[in-house]
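User: Hi! I have a protein structure encoded as tokens and I'd like to know what sequence might fold into it. I'm fairly new to this, so please keep things simple.
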């Protein structure tokens, strides 16, 4: 079951990261990673071609309050985003009774392969189970996105089924794999 969630006043800290609400001062960091070809496309959106696009999307993040900025402590900058949205499980008879959110994420290409995203996802899962009364998290990845698959496996999710996602901004369908983690 879906429930309202506002991350504005939530801060989650790990060894290397701080997950917090986005601020206007994050614009340059956001554009720096979102404008790299291939980064957004792995998540179903086109890379940003102007800082104006990043500004508009950042404003949306701040208005809807369901996306964390992933802030790298050592480098002192936002290097990615982790969002909590309505889960596909809400439409499944077997899971719709569970208080759940879907995790979606993107990370700056320079930080891939360092174990940062599993660190962030595990921290959000722990926070959700311990502080928000959540019962499950859903997650998915495009079939050819092996980096996301490794994150999902490292975080203990169980494969449930195949799915299909349509990206309006890319005008393209993606085959995806869907997973769940139940408390």
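Assistant: Happy to help. Inverse folding works backwards from shape to sequence: for each of the 183 positions I chose a residue that suits the local structure. Here it is:
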């Amino acid at each position: 079951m879906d429930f309202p969630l506002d991350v504005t006043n939530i801060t989650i800290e790990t060894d290397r990261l701080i997950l917090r609400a986005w601020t206007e001062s994050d614009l340059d960091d956001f554009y720096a990673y979102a404008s790299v070809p291939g980064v957004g496309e792995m998540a179903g959106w086109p890379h940003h071609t102007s800082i104006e696009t990043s500004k508009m999307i950042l404003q949306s993040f701040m208005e809807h309050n369901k996306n964390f900025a992933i802030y790298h402590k050592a480098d002192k900058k936002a290097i990615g985003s982790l969002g909590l949205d309505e889960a596909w499980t809400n439409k499944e008879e077997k899971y719709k009774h569970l208080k759940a959110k879907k995790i979606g994420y993107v990370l700056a290409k320079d930080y891939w392969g360092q174990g940062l995203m599993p660190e962030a996802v595990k921290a959000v899962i722990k926070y959700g189970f311990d502080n928000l009364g959540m019962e499950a998290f859903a997650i998915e990845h495009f079939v050819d996105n092996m980096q996301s698959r490794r994150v999902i496996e490292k975080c203990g999710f169980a494969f449930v089924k195949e799915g299909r996602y349509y990206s309006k901004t890319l005008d393209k369908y993606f085959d995806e794999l869907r997973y769940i983690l139940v408390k």
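A useful reference point when you look it over: Residues 38 and 82 are 17 Å apart (CA to CA). Feel free to ask if any position seems puzzling.
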